[in-house]
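User: Hello! My lab partner asked me to get a predicted holo structure for this protein. The small molecule is zinc ion, SMILES included with the sequence. Please write out the structure tokens.
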Amino acid sequence: MKKGQKLYSIFRFKCPHCHEGAFFESDNPFVFSKLGEVRKSCPVCGRGYHREVGFYYGAMYVSYALAVATFVTVYVAVSVLFPSASAGVLVAAVLGSLVVLGPVLYALSKIIWANLFYSYQGPVTAAPEVKAK
Ligand SMILES: [Zn+2]
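Assistant: Hello! Below are the structure tokens for the protein in complex with zinc ion.
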């Protein structure tokens, strides 16, 4: 993955505009006090992460797709690796994986959603403008 590709921004949790600044308040999705908190703007390039109020509600659609993909992957993996596994084991494996991976899927859904709407613009050469309050 190189800088300039959306996957770089997504899997490193970096600014979708410049691919350098942090996207979340915490880079570790398992820090529950800051779970999925998106910064207001990039600390490096200063470009905003919130194009409108409620922008990240749309990330629910991405989250749903990621959860279904996880569900299918775990279900198929357990079914193939343990052909004699009971339905209870399958349900426990699927639910357990969704609970454990939940914070990662939540963070991924937000940054994937942001990358659908923001494109790479490279670093800012001049200092970002100071916004009036
Ligand atoms: Zn940036």
